[in-house]
């Protein structure tokens, strides 16, 4: 089943976040990256990010890092902040997490090393916990990519697996 074709569409590239105040269909394609969606039914808003790397390091000098939305933790903080600046409360927000596949192993001989996908998953859940949020749904890990469609009007997320 695919989402409503009549909604305006936005394609989210890696390192982007989109905050929608009107009904849209946001889509993206994931491998080891993470997508987090947030939806507030009461205020009719939705947001989605496409994070490539787990944590924004505070050691980055101001002005040198131009795209902080590349980072899972930064993106989650910014999405929540946008909702809270409006009329939403944390209890209003429904969170869903997707992605974090192990597309390419970091080491064939060392199972103790985490893949980028695993690190992204860890960063998402750790950040949500720190912010007092929980994921209502998740489809994470594994070895296949995903194509995600997020309906910002209903909060529905449609997922299609991509064989690699």
Give the rounded overall mean pLDDT.
Answer: 89
Identify the CATH architecture. Answer: 2-Layer Sandwich
Distinct helical segment count: 2
What is the structural class? alpha+beta
Distance between the termini: 22 Å
Report the biggest beta sheet as strand number plus sense, adding barrel if it closes.
5 strands, mixed
Q: What order do the helices and strands follow?
A: EEEEEHEHEEE
- Helical residue percent band: 10-25%
Could you name the ranges where pLDDT drops below 50 across 5 or more consecutive residues? none
Structure summary, number of beta strands: 9
| Strand order in the largest sheet | 2-5-4-6-7
- CATH topology, which one? 60s Ribosomal Protein L30, Chain: A
Roughly what fraction of the amino acids lie in strands?
A: 25-35%
Q: Name the CATH class.
A: Alpha Beta
Please tell me what the overall shape is.
Answer: globular
The value of Rg in angstroms is 15 Å
Question: How many domain modules?
Answer: 1
């Amino acid at each position: 089943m695919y989402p409503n074709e009549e909604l305006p569409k936005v394609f989210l590239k890696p390192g982007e976040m989109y905050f929608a105040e009107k009904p849209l269909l946001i889509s993206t394609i994931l491998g080891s990256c993470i997508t987090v969606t947030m939806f507030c039914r009461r205020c009719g808003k939705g947001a989605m990010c496409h994070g490539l790397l787990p944590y924004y390091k505070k050691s980055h000098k101001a002005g040198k890092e131009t795209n902080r939305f590349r980072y899972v933790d930064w993106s989650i903080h910014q999405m929540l902040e946008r909702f809270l600046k409006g009329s939403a409360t944390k209890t209003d927000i429904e969170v869903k997490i997707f992605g974090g596949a192990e597309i390419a192993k970091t080491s064939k001989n060392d199972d103790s090393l985490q893949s980028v996908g695993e690190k992204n998953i860890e960063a998402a859940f750790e950040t949500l916990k720190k912010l007092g949020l929980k994921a209502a749904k998740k489809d994470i890990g594994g070895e296949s990519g995903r194509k995600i469609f997020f309906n910002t009007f209903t909060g529905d997320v449609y997922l299609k697996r991509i064989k690699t």
